[in-house]
Amino acid sequence: MAKMLMKGNEAIAAAAINAGCRFFFGYPITPQNEIPEYMARELPKVGGTYVQAESELAAINMIYGAAGAGARVMTSSSSPGISLMQEGISYIAGAELPCVIVNVVRAGPGLGGIQPAQSDYFQATKGGGHGDYHLLVLAPANLQEAVDLMEKAFDLADKYRNPVMILADGVIGQIMEPVEITPYQPYPDLPPKNWATTGTAHSGGRRRIINSLFLNPDELEQHIQAIYQKYAEMEKHEVRYEMYHCDQAEMMIVAYGTTSRIVRSAIEKCDRLGIQVGLLRPITLYPFPYKAFEQVIDQAKAFLAVEMSMGQMLEDVKIAVAGRKPVNFYGRTGGNIPMPDEIVRKVQDILGGRSA
Amino acid sequence: MKTVYQKSAGLTDIPMHYCPGCTHGIIHKLVAETLVELDMLSKTIAVASVGCSVFAYEYFNCDAQEAAHGRAPAVATGTKRVLPENVVFTYQGDGDLASIGMAEIVHAAMRGENITVIFVNNAIYGMTGGQMAPTTLVGQRTTTSPYGRSRVGQGSPLHISEMLATIDGSAYIARVSVHNIPRLNAAKRSIKKAFQMQLENKGFSLVEVLSTCPTNWGLTPVEALRWLEQTMIPVNPLGVYKDIEGGA
Q: A242-350 sits in which CATH class?
């Protein structure tokens, strides 16, 4: 298929259908409405089902029921709606159900605003709901990557029986870029869904139960430890990141999603000023690419986390750097986007007021 | 020797945890017998809720999902949309369905989801120790209405069957009781009718079963049955509130 000019939200939806998603349950919220609208329009054409839920709470529990029945299923929302889904996401993680959740992040807290932000990083990567669990979190920086990650997300969810979140800021949802959606190739060796509740007629009479309730503390501990074994496997096999312009870098900027694109412009400007700056771009926010920092820890004089938040990924950068080099932060929040010149000035400040 | 009665094949051998005199066990039995009689047990997915019946997934001899508090109709929606040929039912108490899960049950009915809901109404929160429910009668003492539920400030009991019967998407809504054998037999007929509606793709069906809670009502099992009959039923009249096939 040739490249098409698509809006981010629509590209994400198209990629999901391409990856075999046939069930979508959601609730309207800006700035992600083009995803449910696309699904409502396109899913019936491929024999799929779109249901507009009465709330995000209901939507995520419909996901639970559909995933429990073995379907490839997704929902999408934006920050306040994702907050409402946290209860269900916790149950989905506890019951080990595969699904994909797209968060087209807008600024918060509270009703916040509808402009892009990255201020849901903690919620996405550290659990979000109650209890011991993580989502596998993927952060695309452009629409082609959003398409590719969207398709991978379903495979990863099935592979690990764990919910996967696409953390896309409002820019990714709303911009238009050329994308190519090629015939989908699933991961080889995806495990059979021999846990799905489809009626005992399908399972030789063996009852299957989807559940996250374990009143016996030893049983619950074992269950959680088994889930954490999966996270250990994810850390080994699924960490994704990009290193850019690092060879001579005396300063490393860490940024993901839309912010990483702005940082690239800042790096070009720094280049012209004779300042060598590199970019470490996490693509998986959980598991976070801590080990990638070892490649540049000796050469970099300092690190700079740039985010559209008050500094959330910053904490993971500090864990990775572990006090060996100074870690700085530059962020804009509330729906504001950092400008390349602002980032350049911050780099100059950190490196000792080198003049432009 | 001839076997004249035995446990339904629709129930597992796991011992039930319900209190003596609680009618959950009877209601489980009626649902299980119905699924066996309709020959749908092996094609059924039960959705358990949060409350005394949280372990229903252990007792029904079929596939099951355990839902978050109040969300069983949403979970059942997801499952039924994926498996339209299977039977999907929720088993919910009055705290679960009539309080925290009000939006989910109303909208499942509104969409005409082709699921069956077994709604067990005992006018109190049982599992958490006898707190006031939206279905608690005016004047009824609970741990959170220790002076009796007051119409002012605490309100009057919600009438779920009457309410859901007003929704176009509902196909069959009935309130039944299991406090004596004739009522129990009538309850069984309603439950069977509800599942038959689902098998015929008629839409949303719900059977509200008035149930006892001797432990939290502070009554003996026999007194509890009498209280149900003499005090609950006048406030919650039995009957078929909706039947698109013309039975109401």
A: alpha beta
